[in-house]
Amino acid sequence: MRRIVIQGAPPQLWLVKAEAIITKLRAAVNEKEREQIIEANEKLWRDPLIRDWLLEQFYNKCWYTEAYDSVSSIPVSYTHLTLPTNREV
Q1: Hey, where are the domains in the chain?
Q2: Global confidence as pTM
Q3: Which of 8, 26, 56, 81 has a Cα at 20 to 30 A from 65?
Q4: Which residues of 58-79 are buried (b: 16+ CB within 10 A; e: fewer)?
């Protein structure tokens, strides 16, 4: 695995979309509702805005294998993406 120094911030439009989903998750009353919100918004991780920005940060390489990954249809692995936040979801 390689170390990546992220420069800049993700696209603002993507951040707005993500924040709207986070707001819904925080308002969810139970785990089932949270799961429904997550399932309904899976496309967030396939959004070209974040995918292209991350590929640029990683020089079009897989974060793990370093294989060139500029045309993969695989979504961003959100389990490995952490953005600065003031609160937990």
Answers
A1: 11-84
A2: 0.66
A3: 8
A4: beeeebeeeeebeeeeeebeee
